[in-house]
Amino acid sequence: MSTATARKSPVTDWTLVVPVLSLLALVLSWGRDLPGFAVAVVALCLAGAVLAAVHHAEVVAHRVGEPFGSLVLAVAVTVIEVALIVTLMADGGDKTASLARDTVFAAVMITCNGIVGLSLLVGALRNRVAVFNAEGSGAALATVATLSVLSLVLPTFTTTKPGPEFTTAQLAFAAVASLALYALFIAVQTVRHRDYFLPVDTGKAPSQDDHAEPPTARAALLSLGLLLVALVAVVGNAKAVSPTIESAVSDAGLPHAVVGVIIALLVLLPETLAAVRAARRDRVQTSLNLAYGSAIASIGLTIPAIALASVWLTGPLVLGLGPTHMVLLALTVVVGALTVVPGRATLLQGGVHLVVLAAYLFLAVSP
């Protein structure tokens, strides 16, 4: 009986120990120059924290149901990521002027092309056609497109202040608009039109996970706490290994922007793994909720936080994208719209999204 109970327990030994060890590694390595062995240990803890975060996010999702489950993971990792951005900008001075823009745009490209593409690919490989709700996914993509243009495109074309920057009044408007759109999207997703964001019934027999009993409230709360610990460890350890990444990028003669892309890839690993696992269970809509929800949260929370932090931050705040990135953003929106409107996607759509992501990554390395 004890074995059966252990199998049903939502928090197994490794999922409890790994986040704590990863957080300990973060505390010991923060702000220090790490030798090669220490970097390897931190990287191992980072990988373990990613897997633990995915596990605990699934426990919480099983307890609260969709779309709340995907919302918890997307918001949690974004809040921690925003805190990291503000901290780095406070310490970095002028050299971090474009950090918020680069991080947010990387998150948009990785989520809207990488996570979406992988999810559609996995879903189509399993069922030939990946099925999802066009209403919910279309609304989410429209929100991503609007937030991206208001926050990342318009600063390039405004004329009151020279350079791709907002004036104080323009930044305040962008912050209020971003926060309002994010709040409106959450209300629509979780209350008014919740059914638009629920997985589509494909007519296949439910998986074993669907039959499993939901975890108790106590177990779900424990997993929520461990999820936050794991995400802090993921983002913090990604920052801890960033000097090593910077040195490797510099030695390879690559642009400095590649560092931001690599860190964004590491930070978004929990959402990526959770989305792929959901797609394998015929829950492509959950995968899209994670992808587009993360993109919306990244912009909707970062811009207001940066606007508030600009009260005490010194130096310029560059938000406007360059021509190459604006073209990639436009292509992402067009391809995304053509993907979500039918509510069905094949391997081709997944492949197209992944090629757009590959183009972004290639041009980051070779601008």
UniProtKB/TrEMBL annotation:
Keyword annotations of the record: Membrane, Transmembrane, Transmembrane helix
InterPro entries named among the record's database cross-references: Alkaline_pH_Ca-Antiporter, NaCa_Exmemb
Sections of the chain in a coiled coil: none
Topology within the bilayer: Multi-pass membrane protein
Compartments in which it is found: Membrane
Main location group: membrane
One matching Pfam family: Na_Ca_ex
Transmembrane segments: 12-31, 37-56, 68-89, 104-125, 137-157, 169-188, 219-238, 258-278, 290-313, 319-340, 347-365
Domain Sodium/calcium exchanger membrane region residue range list: 39-190, 223-364
Name listed for the protein in its UniProt record: Ionic transporter y4hA
Species of the source: Streptomyces antimicrobicus
